[in-house]
Amino acid sequence: MLKGSRTFSGFSTKDIPGAKEFYGSTLGLDVSEENGMLTLKLGGGQSVMIYPKDDHQPATYTTLNFEVSDVEAAVDELTAAGIVFERYDGTNGPATDARGIMRGGGPLIAWFKDPAGNILSVIQTAGG
């Protein structure tokens, strides 16, 4: 029944104007606003909806992964734009290096948060 349906993902924020600034200006994504919600237009024709939620609680998992061909270059560029990458010591998951890059157990990946505390990542893939 749903096999041919267009699909998209979504997550919440407590601050639509702040999210619009972050995703549009800081990350440089194509962002539109309609009915108090944001739509992020992503590569490959995909989209993600961000909706307001007064009692928003940040996701404890990665809500959005950006495929890149070079994680180190992406980390450098995003750091220059003011992004602070998460550092993990390996206690409750994978460990990252001083730059916030996980270098073992899979593809290179680095996590950061949006203004609402949702976790995002840049992940090195052949298709990035």
Q: Could you write a compact summary of the structure shown?
A:
This protein is α/β, with parallel strands linked by helices.
SSE topology sketch:
Layout: E1 9-13, H1 16-26, E2 30-34, E3 37-41, E4 47-52, E5 62-68, H2 71-80, E6 101-102, E7 109-113, E8 119-124
Parallel strand pairs: 1-4, 5-8
Antiparallel strand pairs: 2-3, 3-4, 6-7, 7-8
Question: Explain this structure to me?
Answer:
The protein is of the alpha/beta class and 128 residues long. The chain is 16% helix and 32% strand. It contains 2 helices and 8 strands; from the N terminus they run βαββββαβββ. It has helices spanning 16-26, 71-80, and strands spanning 9-13, 30-34, 37-41, 47-52, 62-68, 101-102, 109-113, 119-124. The protein has a 4-stranded mixed sheet, with helices on one face. It has a 4-stranded mixed sheet with strand order 5-8-7-6. The radius of gyration is 15 Å and the shape is globular.
Descriptive labels:
128 residues; alpha/beta; four-stranded mixed β-sheet; 8 strands; 16% helix; globular
Q: Characterize the overall form.
A: globular
Q: With helices defined by DSSP (H or I, 4 residues minimum), what is the helix count?
A: 2
Please report the total strand number as a whole number. Answer: 8
- The fraction of residues assigned to DSSP E strands is 25-35%
Q: In this structure, how is the largest beta sheet organized? A: 4 strands, mixed
Order of helices and strands: EHEEEEHEEE
Strand order of the largest sheet: 1-4-3-2
Rg on CA atoms, Å: 15 Å
Give the termini distance in whole angstroms: 32 Å
Residue-averaged pLDDT, rounded? 93
SS content category = alpha/beta
Ranges with pLDDT <50 over ≥5 residues?
none
Helix content: 10-25%
